[in-house]
Every structure is written in structure tokens, then in C-alpha cells.
Design a protein that fits this description.
The protein is α+β, with helices and mostly antiparallel strands and about 90 residues long. Helices cover about 35% and strands about 40% of the residues. It is built from two helices and four strands. Strands 2-3-1-4 form a four-stranded antiparallel sheet.
């Protein structure tokens, strides 16, 4: 069993409210929060409009499966209406 923690930091240029922030980044939870092998949360800056940090814990039978899931998350995150300025992947 392999476990990984993926942390993504975003800058939301021009964001003017928390409602807009949730709208712009809500797809992360909608898309990946439903998967049985992924847990997700907004882990930092909950009250700041211009930046956000999201964490994903991915579990799989082997490292390749976990890497594949993390790659899907990173690819989707790069297409959001936000600048992905930092990402960190740790295997636990």
C-alpha cells in the first residue's frame, strides 16, 4: 500500500470575494473528492481571497497507481482559473 500527500498552492489574481474563490477552485473537491482513494481539503488561507492551498491524500496499491492519480490532479489544477505557483508531493 502506498500513500502520498500532494499539496498545491494557488494565486487567484483579481479574486474579489470568498464566493468567487470557492467558485474558481470548487472543481477540485467536486472532481476528486468523490474518489474512494482520494481525500481532499482546503488546508490554508481559508479567509484570503487571493491565495489558496489544497491538500490531497492519495492511496493506492502501489506507487505507480498513486503517481497516476496525483498526475491527474496536477493536470486538472493547471487548467483552473488560478495560477498554480507551488506543488509538493510527499510519499508517506
Amino acid at each position: 500500500m502506498q500513500v502520498a500527500l500532494l499539496t498545491l498552492d494557488f494565486h487567484l489574481e483579481g479574486c474579489r470575494s470568498l464566493k468567487e474563490k470557492r467558485r474558481r477552485l470548487g472543481g477540485l473537491k467536486d472532481r476528486f473528492g468523490r474518489l474512494s482513494n482520494v481525500a481532499t481539503c482546503e488546508s490554508a488561507y481559508p479567509d484570503q481571497w487571493g491565495k489558496a492551498q489544497w491538500c490531497f491524500v492519495c492511496v493506492g496499491p502501489n506507487k505507480a497507481a498513486v503517481q497516476s492519480t496525483c498526475a491527474l490532479i496536477q493536470e486538472y489544477a493547471s487548467q483552473l482559473d488560478a495560477v498554480l505557483y507551488q506543488q509538493q508531493l510527499e510519499y508517506l
